[in-house]
Design a protein that fits this description.
By secondary structure, the chain is mainly beta. Helix content is about 0%, strand content about 45%. Among the domains are: about 260 residues; about 70 residues, no CATH class; about 140 residues, no CATH class. The chain contains 1 helix and 77 strands. The strands form 6 sheets. The chain has a 22-stranded mixed β-sheet that branches. It has a 21-stranded parallel β-sheet that branches. Strand 76 and strand 77 form a beta hairpin.
Length: about 750
């Protein structure tokens, strides 16, 4: 927000101990508003050293009749030492200053030798003062009120203190419709028994030196529609709002609909403090402080209220109640140290609760997230239940819980700064619980959680979640369960997938070591391009058997060891664009179909074996030898090829399945390794036989070798839908296997 008021340092700050002056001048203006031309009882005098009054007595007695004072003809570098407005509170005698001016002191409502009246002043223009007081002179027992209004499109800069209610019966009222800079302490309710009111009605106030709402007396700050109160100079400034500072004082802040307050902390003293949301917004401007300290009575009215974190982390240490809904927004993090009893809704932000502070109901909007802090909850036998879009975090290295249940769309953060951590739990499960029609994912984050893990700003040294003896159950009620791992080992004895499960390595390394994976879901594994992400058996400890479909979706390594094999019993897909390495002592075992999608690279120098009756398909690249006991099916259209850079062995019962086009194009297997390729054990088939029909001069190249040669003879033929017969033959250069039409048992090349 742009500040419209330019502060001018006056070097003149009020002295609260002075009560007499060199000369007094009383406004007797009757014919003009020009302060340099109108009558003063003692003449104009010297602006910089004399004191000036406009009083209710003189206006009533007829000594003065003009209530607009125009300061525009005073040199703008001139500082009027002191001006006192004691004109009363009647509407017909409201005093308006125009033209702009600089004051050493400005008093509205005054007690003194010649004036004991309330005052009401409107400032129209740009003004600065070294001191502003609304109410009588310090600690005088007079029921006098001072009211100042900063008009729209006008400004006021106060370089020293602003005081309201400076006597035991005094009242100070400040209404801001324009802009105000308070560079000294702004205090509403200065004296015991005094009252101070600040009302921001469409204007903006910057208070840069710990404003006080109720010091010894009663103070009220109300921000109405279009108004803004900044406790600080802007975002990043740390200025605390003091509320009800001394015993016996009262401080109240009202944030009405359309009103905004910006603060790092509202700090309760020894008095009675109240913060009321009536449709307004409280925005955090500095992170790490307690936004609402303990003991404040905070309520949310029917129009609701909003806390905007502006990306910062903050804490609420007091209970918030009321009939309305408190909305948390701003993409930051609010930790609740007291239980809110009002309704809470999270939008584009995170709310953190403990077991003692979790509210009965939390609604989640777009980007809303709730975090459950398990720190200190380490007793055995405890059950932790997390609701929809709810996370658990802990700073304990090894918390204990009997059961950990996480419902739909929940997230779990394993928050350990140093050392090894583990979760001791009889069962660890994600369950839909009472949530119906789930639509979100469930996510576990392991590593150090610093407030925004999802932006990959994590640093951790964690080892051991879940523990090797833990059973992790992924329910069918959750569309997808995810775990994000940074510099962590993730072992578990048994992983049961009744829903989909994804492991993402987001740090420099990640070791995923399940012992068994069973169920009906799909397991996805990926890592960052610059990370070392391992999906592996645990050498020397246990093998890894996976009985669910697997997708290797990003840069990753799969590791298998003699005696501790990594075995895939269902399909494995190397996702498009993924590069996957096997750099261990044994190749993984594939007992299901294997797909290498377009752009994917499967690097395995120890060889890839395709089981009997299973299919190797896709249009990516296998870097290393292959051994085929089943089907190889390159691509799904005539433009796709499957590339193998190592030797190819075709065992008995293997076959080559291709897709052809009517123009003679065909999908193909491309072998770039050295040595001979014996095709005696394979058969050839066509996926789309309807495209294969009798025509003159048509043949299809279905396999090529770059650095070796093809030997042997393919047995059998392919019969097209039109009855034509086709046979695979080695071309004369021994570099191509070609499908040609057979006539009477004779297959003839047409090239």
């Amino acid at each position: 927000m742009k500040r419209l008021v330019k502060t001018v340092l006056l070097g003149l700050v009020a002295s609260a101990a002075t009560a007499s002056w060199a000369a007094d001048h009383y406004w007797y203006g009757k014919s003009t508003s020009d302060v340099t031309q109108a009558e003063w009882n003692n003449g104009i005098g010297t602006w910089s050293s004399d004191v000036y009054f406009i009083t209710e007595k003189d206006l009533k007695d007829g000594a003065a009749s003009v209530t607009t004072l125009d300061f525009s003809q005073i040199d703008q570098d001139t500082v009027v030492k002191k001006f006192c407005v004691a004109n009363g509170l009647d509407d017909e005698r409201v005093v308006t200053f125009t033209g702009g001016a600089k004051f050493g002191e400005l008093h509205v409502g005054y007690w003194g030798s010649y004036a004991e009246y309330s005052g009401r002043l409107v400032l129209d223009g740009a003004y600065t003062t070294g001191y502003l007081e609304m109410g009588p002179w310090l600690n005088q027992s007079y029921a006098i009120t001072g009211m100042v209004e900063v008009a729209r499109s006008s400004s006021l800069a106060v370089n020293g203190e602003t005081r309201m209610g400076t006597s035991t019966q005094g009242v100070g009222v400040l209404v801001v419709k324009g802009d105000m800079d308070s560079n000294g302490t702004l205090t509403a309710g200065y004296a015991a028994g005094g009252k101070g009111v600040v009302e921001i009605a469409g204007g903006t106030v910057y208070s840069t030196r710990d404003p006080k709402v109720g010091m010894l007396g009663a103070g009220t700050l109300t921000v109405d529609s279009g108004g803004a109160f900044w406790s600080g100079a802007g975002f990043g400034s740390r200025v605390w709002t003091q509320i009800a500072t001394d015993a016996g004082s009262t401080g109240t802040i009202n944030l009405n609909a359309g009103g905004e307050m910006y603060a790092s902390q509202i700090n309760k003293g020894d008095g009675s403090a109240y913060v009321n949301f009536n449709g307004g917004r409280l925005t955090v401007i500095y992170g790490g402080d307690t936004l609402l300290t303990s003991g404040i009575v905070a309520t949310v009215g029917a129009q609701g209220g909003t806390i905007d974190t502006a990306g910062y982390s903050t804490t609420i240490a007091t209970e918030i109640s009321g009939e309305g809904t408190l909305t948390i927004t701003g993409r930051g993090r609010v930790a609740f140290n007291a239980k809110p009893t009002c309704a809470v809704e999270i939008e584009n932000g995170t709310a953190v609760f403990t077991a003692a502070t979790t509210p009965g109901s939390v609604a989640l909007g777009t980007g809303g997230f709730v975090e459950y802090d398990l720190s200190g909850e380490t007793e055995a036998g405890k059950t932790v239940v997390l609701g929809e879009n709810v996370a658990m975090t802990t700073s304990d290295e090894s918390p204990v819980a009997e059961h950990v249940i996480i419902r739909n769309n929940g997230e779990l953060y394993w928050n350990v700064s140093y050392g090894d951590g583990s979760l001791s739990a009889t069962s660890f499960a994600a369950t839909n619980g009472v949530v119906t029609d789930p639509t979100g994912d469930f996510t576990i984050f392991t590593g150090y959680y610093n407030g925004d893990y999802r932006q990959d700003q994590v640093k951790s040294w964690v080892n051991g979640f879940p523990t090797a003896d833990t059973k992790v159950i992924v329910p069918s009620s959750i569309p997808k369960m995810q775990i994000y791992v940074d510099k962590a080992t993730v072992p578990c004895k048994e992983l049961v997938l009744n829903g989909d499960f994804a492991v993402h390595g987001v740090g420099k390394w990640c070791n995923f070591r399940p012992n068994t994976v069973t169920g009906n879901g799909t397991l996805t594994f990926s890592a960052r391009a610059d990370a070392y992400g391992y999906f592996e058996a645990h050498k020397g400890s246990y093998a890894c058997t996976v009985d669910v479909p697997v997708v290797l979706a990003g840069p990753a390594r799969v590791s298998s060891y003699p005696g501790y094999l990594l075995t895939f019993n269902k399909s494995v897909t190397f996702a498009a664009g993924a590069t996957v390495n096997n750099n261990a002592e044994a190749a993984p075992v594939f007992n299901g179909d294997v797909t290498v999608e377009s752009g994917a690279r499967w690097i395995c120098s120890l060889g890839t074996v395709i089981a009997s009756g299973k299919t190797l398909s896709g249009s990516g690249t296998i870097e290393g030898p292959i051994e085929l006991n089943g089907i190889v099916a390159p691509g799904t259209n005539t433009a796709e090829i499957l590339t193998v850079t190592g030797a190819a062995t075709f065992n008995s019962g293997s076959s080559l399945l291709v897709t052809i086009g009517e123009d003679g194009a065909s999908s193909r297997l491309v072998l770039t390794g050295e040595g001979t390729v014996d095709v005696s054990n394979i058969s050839v088939d066509v996926a789309n036989k309807s495209a294969l029909h009798h025509r003159s001069g048509c043949e299809y190249t279905i396999m090529t070798v770059a650095n070796g040669s093809i030997v042997g003879k393919v047995a059998g033929t392919v019969t097209a839908d039109d009855g034509s017969v086709w046979k695979a033959k080695i071309f004369s250069d021994a570099k191509s296997l070609v499908l040609v039409q057979s006539f009477g048992g004779l297959a003839v090349f047409v090239r």
